Amino acid sequence: MILLETRDLTRIYGGLTAVNGVDFKLPRGQIHALIGPNGAGKSTFVGMVSGRIPASRGEVWFNGQNVTQLPAHKRIQAGMAYTFQITAVYANLSLADNIALAQRSRDRTRILAALDRVGLADRADQTTGDLSYGHQRLLEIAMGVAQAPRLLILDEPTQGLAESEIEGFNALIRSLAGETTILLIEHNMNVVMALAERITVLETGEILATGTPEEIHANAAVQEAYLGHV
Amino acid sequence: MSIDRRSLLLHGGLIALLFALGFLLPTYHQGNLARIMVLATYAVGYNVLFGYTGLLSLGHAMFFAAGMYGLGLTMHHGGLSAIPAFALGILCAAALSTVVALLALRTIGVAFMIVTLMFSQASFLAILYAGDWTRGDEGFVITQSARQIAGIDLTDPLARYMAALLIFAVALLITARMMHASFGHVLVGVRENEERTRMLGYDVYRHKLAAVIISGTISGAAGAAYALLFGYVGATFASVQYSIFPLLWVLLGGAGTTIGPLVGVIFMFYLIDYSSGLTNAYMLIAGIVLVLLTLFARTGLMGEVRKRWVAWLP
C-alpha cells in the first residue's frame, strides 16, 4: 500500500526549475533514501511534500488523500513529521518542553521515554541552547519520532553527528522500521547503505534512478552523477 | 512540591497580599496601588501578546480606549448603569481587537508594529473627530452617582481598591491558567520559533489571532475599569504614550512572566513618584534607571529572578 505519492511534482523558482515533474511512490513501512548532489532539489522536493514550499505544478497524495492544497500544519496533523536540515529546536526552552510541544503531551514519562531514544533523558531539564550541536540534532530527531508520525521526513539528520552518535541514529531508525515510513535525505553514503531499503537519486530536479542499494551502487549513471565524486 | 502547587501558591499568595495591603496601607499608597492594579491589568493583557506570543504591538492604547469609551460613552450619554456599561466596554475591545487582528496579522515583524500603530492613531483621531460626544482631549467625567454597583460606592477608597484588585486578580488568573494549558505553551512555541511550531502541526495563525483578541480584550477591560473607578474618560488614554507604557512596564517587570507586569507598573509608578519628589527633572532620573535596567537586567526584573533563582517562575 502506498503512503505517499507525488505526481508531476514541480517547483520553479523564477526561471530555474528546482524540481521537475517528479513521480514518486513510497510504500507504507519503507525506509527510503533520497540522494543526489547539492542543488539536486532534494530539500525542495520534501519541502513540497510537507507543505513548507508550495508546488508550482503537480500533486501530493498522502495516506489516500490529495493534500496538495493543504497548508503545512494540516499535513503534519495528518501524520507527517519533518525534521529540519538546519537545526530548528526551541533554543530557549528545556529539552522536555521541546518534546512536549512535539508530542502534544506533557506526560513526564513519555517525555523521558522520547528523550531516552536518543540518549538525552538525563538532560531533560537543561536549556536546549546550551547543548552541543550534535545533541541538538539528536533532539530534533527525537522530536520527529515523538510525534509518532506515519511518515517521518529527515533532512540530512546525521550532519554534524559524531561517528558514535551516527551508530545510535542508525539503531533508532531501525527500531522504527515497519511501523513508521521514513523518507531520508542523506549525504553520508554509509548511513544510506546501512538503512535504506530503496534509494531514489535526484539530479537537477529529476529522478535519475530508483532501486535497491545494490542496484543504485551498480548503476553507472549514478556513479557518474554522484557516487563517483564522493 | 509540584510546579502546579507552587504556581497556585505564588498567584494566590500575591492576591492575598494585595488584599491585606488594602487594609494596611495609608490612604495615599492605597490609592496609588488601586491605580497600579488597573494599569497592571492593562500590562497583563499586553504581556499575553508581547511577552508570551512575541508579537510587538505599538497600538494597544486603542484597546484600552475601546474599553474606556465603550463604558464611558454609554454611561455618560446612554445613562447605562455600571455593570452593563462595563460589559459593553469589554465587548467593544473584543470587537475592535478581532477586526485589528484579522487585518494586522496579514503582516509580520516591523510591519505588524507599524500597522498596529496606524490603527491606534486612527482610533485616537476618531475620538478627537467625534469631539461632540467624547469632548476630545478635555474628556469628560463620570459622576459619582453613576459609579455604584449594587449599593457599593466605587468612589470610596477601599471599595475602589477592592474592585481594582478583583479585576487584576481575574486577569492574572486567566493568564496563569492559560500559560499552564497547552494553548499557552504553543504561544511560547510561536514566540520562540514560528516555523518549527508550524512544522509540528500547529495552526500558528489561529493561535496568534486568539492571542491578539485575548490581549486586546483584557486591555479593554482595564480601560473600562479605569474609567469606572477613577471617573475620567479622555483622549490621552488613546494616545501613542499609552501604547508605549505597557511595553515599558512589561519590559521592566519581565516579559513572559505572569507577575512581571504588576512588578513593572509598581516600579515605574514609584520611580516617577519618588524622583519627582527630588527634582523637577524627574524624567532624567527615571530615564537613567531605565537605561541601567535594560543594560543589566535585560529580561526585566522578574525575568532576572527567574534566570538566577527561581527557574519555575511562570
Structure description:
The complex is a heterodimer of chains A (230) and B (314). Chain A has 230 residues and is of the alpha/beta class. Chain A has a single domain, classed as Rossmann fold (3-Layer(aba) Sandwich). Chain A is built from 9 helices and 10 strands. The model of chain A has no long low-confidence stretch (mean pLDDT 92). Chain B has 14 helices and 4 strands. Chain B has a two-stranded antiparallel sheet. In chain B, a hairpin with a 2-residue loop joins strand 2 and strand 3. In chain B, helix 2 runs parallel beside helix 7, helix 2 crosses helix 12 and helix 11 runs parallel beside helix 14. Classes of the chains: A alpha/beta (230), B mainly alpha (314). At the A-B interface, helix 2 and helix 3 of A face helix 8 and helix 9 of B.
State the gist of this model.
The complex is a heterodimer of chains A (about 230) and B (about 325). Chain A has about 230 residues and is an alpha/beta fold.
Which descriptors apply to this entry?
heterodimer, A: 230 residues, alpha/beta, Rossmann fold, six-stranded mixed β-sheet, 27% strand, globular, B: 314 residues, mainly alpha, two-stranded antiparallel sheet, 14 helices
By DSSP, the count of extended strands of chain B is 4
Overall pLDDT level of chain A = 92
CATH topology description of chain A = Rossmann fold
Derived structural class of chain B: mainly alpha
**Proportion in helices of chain B:** over 70%
Beta-strand percent range of chain B:
under 5%
Instruction: Return residue spans of chain A where pLDDT drops below 50 for at least 5 consecutive residues.
Output: none
Cross-sheet strand order for the largest sheet of chain A:
6-7-8-3-9-10
Q: What's the overall average pLDDT of chain B, rounded? A: 93
Radius of gyration over C-alpha positions of chain A, nearest whole angstrom: 17 Å
Low-confidence spans of chain B: none
**How many distinct folded domains of chain A?**
1
Biggest pleated sheet of chain A: 6 strands, mixed
Question: What is the assembly state of the chains in this entry?
Answer: heterodimer
Could you give the count of β-strands of chain A?
Answer: 10
Reading off the top of the CATH hierarchy, the class of chain A is best stated as Alpha Beta
Q: In sequence order, what are the helices and strands of chain A, one letter per element?
A: EEEHEEHEHHHEHEHEEHH
CATH superfamily of chain A: P-loop containing nucleotide triphosphate hydrolases
The percentage helix of chain A is 25-40%
Mass-distribution shape of chain A: globular
